[in-house]
Amino acid sequence: MSKHKLIIVILIMTVFWFACPGKKEPDKKQDNIEAAHWPIFRGDTALTGTTGDKVPDKLSLRWTFKTGGEILSSPVIGSGRVFIGSTDGKVYALHLKDGKKIWEFDAGDDIEASPLLVAGSIYIGSLSGEFFSLNADTGAVLWKYKTEGSIYGSANWVRVPGSQELLVFVGSHDNRMYCFEGASGKLNWTYEIDHYINGAPATDGTLIVFGGCDEKLHIANVVDGKKLGEVGVGSYIPGSAALAGERAYLGHYGNKLVCIDMKNRKIAWEYSDAEHADSFFSSPAVGKEHVVIGSRDGYLHCVNRATGKQAWVFRTRDEVDSSPVIAGNRVVSGSTDGRLYLVDLENGQETWSYEIGAAITGCPAVAGGWIVIGSEDGRVYAFGESL
Q: Domains of the chain by range and CATH?
């Protein structure tokens, strides 16, 4: 083969290589979008508020989406989509890539609860007490159930041990924890306490664990709802407990962060900050060595997970009802001062912040290099790696 012919063959092969769709380099950002997974309030069924996904070093606002009311709900992420509720009474499904609306569902009343995304369905409750199962692709109602009180907390789920049957749990202001068959909506059991249930239940797959305004942490069997124990904490529990090992971590109205030994049904340690004590409406994030929680004193508090000894505090400019997320070596949290913060997990120093300008009370969803959060200005904000 002559030299000129060889050059022509090489050129043709090169053009073919780059023109062939199967040979292109993958779109890394698209891969992140599809892989981003934060399907439940606090990220996992134990409600730990932690993720192994790291937050990019350089973040920028990638898109916003405006709803018709304030957003107190926390977003979830899955299958390249964001799902969130609004006080305009609607549930929204948005593209994670650009925030464009896929569908909306009108629940008929304000929604403050976070959605649950599992097995192709969205589960969410409203302030009228209705609990919905929606098709995650279309927003169509699969089933619904009317409780006798408002639903403020997220639902949770388990697979029945030794079975593929999906169970879904949600608490209500009618003082009951409900367990439904996920596919049919059949009510399996209820567990009644003496006051409101505000937060989401946590589960390790065998136990369902939740706090109430009756000042107790309740522990029940996931299959039949049988009461297994309770631990009094001395004040009402407005948020959700997080589970790690045989311990549960929660904050309460009496200005304390509490660690509970679930096996022995007793308090292992309590933390409070005498210098600027206030109520904990936030739910804690539980990492390998640290527990981080927001307080109405305007601070993020970080303590040693084993001992409850303070590691650091970080001051915002207003109350921190937003539940923080531990993402790698960063803590992500909002504040009612209208800012979203990134804080170094080891030393509590601010590494980045963004001023939204309206109160943030929901929990951020952190996955695949994205941070998504709602604000009381009615907008959803999505942050990603700077382009």
A: 27-385 (2.130.10.10)
